[in-house]
Amino acid sequence: MKKSILITGCSSGIGLCAAETLFKRGYRVFATARKESDVERLKAQGLESLKLDINDSNSIKTALAEILERTGGTLDALFNNAGFVQAGAVEDLSREAMRAQFETNVFGPIELITQVIPVMRKQGHGRIIQNSSMLGEVTIPFVGAYNASKFALDGFTHTLRQELKRSPIQVSIIAPGPITSHLRTNAKQHFNRERIKPDSAYKAAYKRIEERYSEQPPSPQEQRLTQPPEAVVKQLIHALESKYPKTHYYTGTSAKVFSLLRRFLSEPMLDWILIKLT
To answer: Of the residues 36, 108, 138, 276, which has the maximum number of CB atoms within 10 A of its CB?
Structure first.
């Protein structure tokens, strides 16, 4: 019998690559997306797709119920991938912008996990993999909401792994560095929607952020550091299929390097490097 996996955020980038790769690998892939147009496009590609808005509790319950109906009540794996970046200095972000960031990047994934765990307990096995970020370990300026959401997601996931230690469910985190995706394009849309204070002290910085988000293609330096979505999917496959999956995967040189630097450098020195690079 094919192994089944639910993947969120499959409209593009890592989620789409994961869905296509695992489908070819023989998995029964439930590729979900927030927009109906994306769901129809995924179906046209031959994927089993459903609408799932991670910000909507009813959407989560409805999508999962439909999947369980199709599988006879089982689900082998969950890959929480949906997310977005909200740019802006901490002092300029509204409470609504912060809440939206946490709804998508933290609260939605955690709610979906709580719905999936009883299914996996009952069937006697399961894999839960979170697509986090290297920014769940180190921070860079002007994406404080995103940094905080990934730190929170990692904290929840580490705790979840500890609590499920004696269960048949295994939990892993994938922490990518820069990845080729639509994340920057989507970040620009969210940044444009956010009402930045007219008298912000960071007007010049925001102008540079908008210019970076508009760069097509990315700068040569960014291109050297950026990995394709396949790099994440390779680690996802290991987390799904290895008898002893890692608790934490780092995708790309930058993610691995900064994970090490965080452990060995003083915080002021690490801040200096991160600010210099960004």
So the answer is: 108
Identify the structural domains of the chain with CATH numbers, from first to last.
4-277 (3.40.50.720)
User: DSSP character for 76?
Assistant: -
Q: Which residues contact 43 (CB under 8 A, 6 or more apart)?
A: 49
Angle 228-233-234 (CA atoms, 0-180°, nearest 5)? 95
Strand order in the sheet with 4-7: 48-51, 28-33, 4-7, 77-80, 126-131, 169-176, 248-251
Catalytic choice (27, 146, 213, 249): 146
Q: Diameter of the chain by CA atoms?
A: 60
pTM: 0.90
Nearest to 112 by CA among 65, 182, 42: 65
Structure tokens at 268: 């002021």
d(CA 142, CA 91): 10
Report the alpha-carbon distance of residue 249 to residue 232 in Å, rounded: 9
How do residues 83-105 score in pLDDT, each as one tens digit? 999 989 999 998 999 999 999 99
Selection from 74, 69, 163 nearest residue 110 by Cα: 163
Residue 146: active-site member: yes
What H or E segment, with its residue span, contains residue 42?
Answer: helix 36-44
